[in-house]
Amino acid sequence: MAACRKPVLLGLRDAAVQGHPTGPGAWTASKLGGVPDSLPAVAAPRPVCEVCGQPLALVVQVYCPLESSPFHRLLHVFACSRPECRRGGARSWKVFRSQCLQKREEEPQDIQKQENGLTAEDWCEGADDWGSDGEGAPSPQLTWGFGSDSNIARDKDWTAQLQDLCLQDSVPGAVPPAPSGEGLALPPVVPQFLPYYICVVDEDDYRDVVSLDHAQSLLREYQQREGVDVQQLLSQSLSSDSDEKYEKTVIKSGDKMFYKFMKRIAACQEQILRYSWSGEPLFLTCPTSEVTEIPACSHCGVRRIFEFQLMPALVSMLRSANLGLSVEFGTILIYTCEKSCWPQNHQTPMEEFCIIQEDPDELLFK
């Protein structure tokens, strides 16, 4: 019997984050850029680059509680925006997981949110089904935004609903002024990308509207720069009986992986994130030994599993107000503890693991 395919949810950029939201309205929202929000009783991660020692910029924040789990769950992905650190691989990227127990009792702010029709339970059906004794691994309950329809994600004006969350008007990504006075050591400025909410759609909703024009256009550019014919390589046999044929086979295998990647994302080119908890990642280039040697959770020793990946379209959407910040990558694969362990009364984020796959020719997704 064929294995059941894990569902894939796509993250798309939505409305800009206005002001500096706080409380549940901040940490139950997924976003790109801005500053990391913190769960109650858990400090927000503030990592530094292992290459240059400078503060890392928040790339994405994903709120993703698991079904049959009593925990709120928040993941943060950071990267170094310094050009000289782009070759640092995983040393210039960091992933953190934060959790805290949900409360069944209603708090005044929860009642107000219910009146506005914006409760987390409404956004993720089944989020309140805690303590299930059913067998099998828990499934994710994502609350990446306010809608699940692609047309809504692109066309709907969310201003009114955002105002319901009582956001305070301010300049996105603004850094508070440093204290004045001689002899004071000023803290390093934490780089920030302009913040935008992330909304979620189901990949299956796009399967009937696939257009390969864009994918084939990128393939033609790739072929011209690399001097290869992808279609011909894909049609040829992968068998080899000599060193020369083996080298060609490696090239063909890489092009085949790239072609599969482009074909899969062609239906929704604006996707910035693919979420499939315990599913299969979509590789851009041939996976290295890193994929088979993913370290176990450093806290409980259980294996890590694939949870989500960042996509090429995100690169051009990470913008800064005035510092000219940028990051470059092909895709970033995020792996987290299969048990999503969280010791009682733990108050600091747990570091998880990521794999960086570069843009094959550094020009393809610019």
Describe the protein:
The chain has 366 residues and is an alpha+beta fold. The chain contains nine helices and eleven strands. It has helices spanning 24-27, 108-115, 120-123, 150-155, 159-164, 213-226, 230-235, 243-265, 313-317; strands at 9-16, 31-32, 57-63, 71-79, 93-101, 196-202, 273-275, 304-310, 331-337, 350-351, 353-357. The chain has an eleven-stranded antiparallel sheet. A hairpin with a 7-residue loop joins β3 and β4. α6 (213-226) runs antiparallel to α8 (243-265). The longest helix is centred in the C-terminal third of the chain and has 23 residues, at 243-265. The radius of gyration is 22 Å and the shape is globular.
Unreliable segments of 5+ consecutive residues: 110-137, 144-182, 234-251
Q: Approximately how much beta-strand content do the residues carry?
A: 15-25%
- Derived structural class: alpha+beta
- Annotation, overall tally of beta strands: 11
Mean pLDDT across all amino acids: 74
